[in-house]
Amino acid sequence: MKITANIITLNEEKHIEAVIKSVQQLCDEVLVIDSLSTDRTCEIAESLGARVVKQAYLGDGPQKAFGAPLAKNEWILSIDADERLDTNAIEAIKNLDLQNTPYDAFSFARKTYVGKAFIKLWYPDRVTRLYSRSKCGFTTAGGHARVKTDNVKALDADMLHYSYDDYAQMIQTSHKFITRGAKIAHEEGKRASAFDPFLHGLGALFKALVLKGGAFHGINGWNVAVISAFSSYMKYALMLEMQDNE
Which helix (DSSP H) or strand (DSSP E) does residue 105 occupy? Predict the structure, then answer.
């Protein structure tokens, strides 16, 4: 059965060629939903045969959901510009009988990299990305995007995630997620106490180093654990600041 790849982009000229070539190994249509890029993202995508639709950014979930009705195929593979299909994922998808499957969607284990370092701490980080658009789709609510269905089959296959060039970029990017997370929590009416930054920061550190074994993953495990703890701490610190400014 044919599949449409759905990629959301914003100034991704560095990644767009590789991700398109990755999905073209099994998708007969590549749909790029571009958030008004100012670089060569759209030009490169179109030169590779992708169909580009421009749409101002609506949020992660809504942006991914926007592309589904525009696809010509029933099955959609949602993939970010900084992701690639591992060879085992390509084979796993080719072996699926999507015409007769009882499942609404399929998930992949995601292998995330910071520079050249594979972050074992975050593996398998399951993500549901191949789905039947008539049966389910991405949520349009705020926060982290996900395909809303419980009828998911976990594939023994990996999606590669080249998330950050280095730890400096990871730290810079974390600021955006900290602010967005605090804002969403505040808008949803959640309240933070004076103890929450410490409790959640220490909790995140304990979870990463002890429960997930990051302490035994070398310097990369420690780096990610500390950055995650700082992010958790600052999210609640910002929530407290927002409450004080009400």
Answer: strand 105-114
